[in-house]
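Figure 2 data, in text form.
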Amino acid sequence: MKESFEMTKSKHMAGASVATGKQTEIAVLAGGCFWGVEDILRDVPGVLDTDVGYTGGWLENPTYHDTHDSKSGHAEAVRITFDPTVLSYEDLLEKWFFRLHDPTTLNRQGNDIGTQYRSAIFPQSPEQKEIAERVIARVNASGKWKRPITTSIEPASTWYSAELYHQDYLRKNPGGYTCHYLR
């Protein structure tokens, strides 16, 4: 399903403001297989919704199969709708994203290898881009990781939701494969 950022943003913001009165913001992050990233982030206080999908490539309406072997250029990613009064974008990146995967392995997480598994941030605004740059610099300087951060900051692009069987995959399949955990 092809859905533009503006359509998604409008839909999420309208629904959230009418239903709950909460402010919302969207973050799009790729940190390897989207199953594990989603599984951790969906339970973070302030996260209102998660959607796994594909972004950052050239092929329209990609499928899971299309993302492998660099057939589409897309990364497996998670679109996170969150309440910025509870969870800041900066904390989402620094306290969660950079802890749930190894941001020093280029195009790889655990046994998953390929550009679809790259570590990438897709800022949805100039402010998010500035924050991402600051957080990457801080995480690099912290000494937490023995190698340099390889996480890329890529332009926001069209979001394609993944097939339904990928949504909430690890809830539907407890014990399914993941290489994600908080470090």
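Caption note: The domain at 2-14+24-172 is CATH 3.30.1060.10 (Peptide Methionine Sulfoxide Reductase; Chain A).
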